[in-house]
What we know:
Layout: H1 3-7, E1 10-14, H2 19-30, E2 34-39, H3 46-51, E3 55-58, E4 74-77, H4 86-94, E5 97-100, H5 101-109, E6 113-118, H6 123-136, E7 142-144, E8 156-157, E9 163-167, E10 182-185, H7 193-196, H8 199-210, E11 218-222, H9 226-237, E12 241-247, E13 255-263, E14 266-273, E15 276-282, H10 287-302, H11 307-316, E16 325-330, E17 333-338, H12 343-356, E18 362-366, H13 371-385, E19 390-393, H14 410-413, E20 421-423, H15 430-437, E21 443-447, H16 455-467
Parallel strand pairs: 1-2, 1-4, 2-3, 4-5, 6-9, 6-10, 7-9, 10-11, 11-12, 12-13, 17-21, 18-19, 18-21, 19-20
Antiparallel strand pairs: 7-8, 13-14, 14-15, 16-17
Helix pairs in contact: 2-5, 6-10, 6-11, 8-9, 10-11, 12-13, 15-16
Amino acid sequence: MTTADRLLERAHLIGIGGAGMSGIARILLARGKTVSGSDAKEARTFLTLRAQGARIAVGQAAENLDLLPDGPTAVVVSTAIKESNPELVEARRRGITVLHRSQALAELMAGHRVACIAGTHGKTSTTSMLTVALQHCRLDPSFAIGGDLNDSGANAHHGSGGVFVAEADESDGSFLVFAPSVAVVTNVEADHLDHHGTVEAYTAVFDAFVDRITPGGVLVACADDPGSAALAARAEARGIRVRRYGRAATAASDATLLDYRPADGGGVARISLDGQEIQLGVAMPGEHMADNALAALLAGLELGAPLAELGEGIAAFGGVRRRFEYKGAAGGVRVYDDYAHHPTEVAAQLRAVRPAAEGGRVVVIFQPHMYSRTKTFAAEFAAALGLADEVVVLDVFGAREEPEPGVTGALIADAVPLDAVHYEPAFDKVPSLVADLVRPGDLVLTMGAGDVTMLGPELIAELDRRAAGE
């Protein structure tokens, strides 16, 4: 029996409804382990997990550690779980092994060839593209992703192949427990300073991650991004093998984007791969998605997958939940939802959706995420939102942070370089406000990492009611 089998034979997951934790639960259940868990409120993932045998409590209390008859062999937590959590307090009192989510995931990776995708932006999309491409090659990888694949509806899977693909989260430095043979870094740009403190510390954690690459492994890095390019140069100087991807103007890229054109809701990329010119279909819109496709392609080749099948798999990629996800249409208005919550992500997505608007206006409902990020990047968010035609800014979704005096969505709204900007802190008033603003042909994008995702269906319902004369 492996260490993972012993440690996680009976696992209790605090916050089991979260993207990362629910993925671990899926894999454990598929491996025949016993799983219990809890969360503060009901989550849509619970139906599937319960059907697979998980015992889940809504609400958190010390007695939830008794959901399994013999009690857990390990309790799994994320960074969001506070030391005062009653289940964590009880686990420590009983002397039960407590694992961070990343440690549990590292245990599950044992015995596999591991590919980890890291970076400030693009992790989920790139991890998902690589996973779907490897599935297309019939390699059946295990995977753990920070979003649900649209094709399967799952964020994790226990595969029969010898490859494990995982999204590697730098936000708290927890990805330093992984030991990948293939590491992808899409970009390195200041973020999560609430945890890391300084830009220098944030950058340094990526160097430490690259040093975790196993002997003979490879770093796949974006040559166009200054942070990633500098990281690659430092890694190469330490003797780590590097494969680069980038645009035509970038020298010494192994995979070079020569040309990109929008097509059929996505795009077609003309690339040079190790000197061979090929075309690569990309199902999601935007040149940034073509960059992600190049990263997935190089990583897949390093894992031994054949080029032709990898390309077909990337072209067939059906997207990820909350990554330019189509929610519906009403009154001639199309509504999409996107997870972008950093200025660079916001700008990239707005550039990508412009062709999809087909001449109509782009209307953005933006919810800032975290007070520290809003305060640090207010001007950058405002500039990025200026790429839209009409903007509605909500109040800050605090996530794990306490409110900070003077830090509201107005910091961003007041600086957006457009006349058509609206700050609306009352969440329940937004569907009516936006319904007043839009006209047939508009494309509406709800954007942010918080509960703004709920507004898309509510806006569609409001537009339907108006169309029906209610």
